[in-house]
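Quick illustration for those who missed Monday's session on complexes.
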Amino acid sequence: MRIPFTKMQGAGNDFVVLDETQQAYGLTPAQYRFLADRHFGVGADQILSVRPAPHPGVDFAYVIHNADGGEVENCGNGARCFVRFVHDRGLTARRQVRVQVHGGVMTLQLDDDGRVTVDMGPPVFDLPRIPFDPQGLTPRFVGAWEVWPLPLAWMGGMAEVPVSVLSMGNPHAVWRVDDVDAAPVADWGPLIERHANFPRRVNAGFLQVLDRRTARLRVFERGVGETLACGTGACAAVVAGIRHGWLDERVDVRLPGGTLTIAWAASQGLDAPVLMTGPAEPVFEGVIDVPDLP
Ligand SMILES: N[C@@H](CCC[C@H](N)C(=O)O)C(=O)O
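Prediction with LBFN2T5F bound:
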């Protein structure tokens, strides 16, 4: 099957974007893995599919697959690329677009400077909805909110990582570290991702607070590995930082691939929406032969 695609990136988190508004390709997990493969395919952290609106009140459906071929609930950097894609291709003239994602409806705004602001909706703290199973763990409070000490088997012994857990439509565990450059992202990221207390696995964020309005973040993404940026991860880290009293309500998050601005008016209630602003850039377009892969 020959498939046209657009390669895009948002703060270095990169995507293959497919227009499935006229024709559904019906790709298998193995075919998504092929597209994401950096040697044999196009190469991407996620594959984004633009599909027709499933019901009135939204403009499109937005479906996300990780590089490992698994479908996931949300992707913040992808959402910004999504709106830039539908606008650039003339699929809509609207600068404000509503899309159905797995976890709900998101509103995306193409700003005059080419950046995109996404209303990511409120964070989710209800443990079963994250989903997070606290069995065997005793939380402790840091500021006004709990952290969960996750035991990790490491080098023949046990380490303990205190994480804040929440969902931004997808699951996140955030650990505050002193220095992200020295954080054990490659070693402990996979252990956190597959920890038994997260039944659907988790994205692992390593947060360094520089001051109340500036943070650094590295994310070991579920189904991918460390990426240059994670939009939902940046939202989750800022929400955690605000709830623990480390951060103000508007924060610049410096990721390895760029900076995202995250705003959450927690003083108006924990159900206030999280707003994320950042770049979304096309890289190149192409057509690829996708082999039959069951
Ligand atoms: N890169 C994304 C998150 C993509 C999904 C994530 N890996 C998951 O499995 O939940 C972002 O920008 O939010």
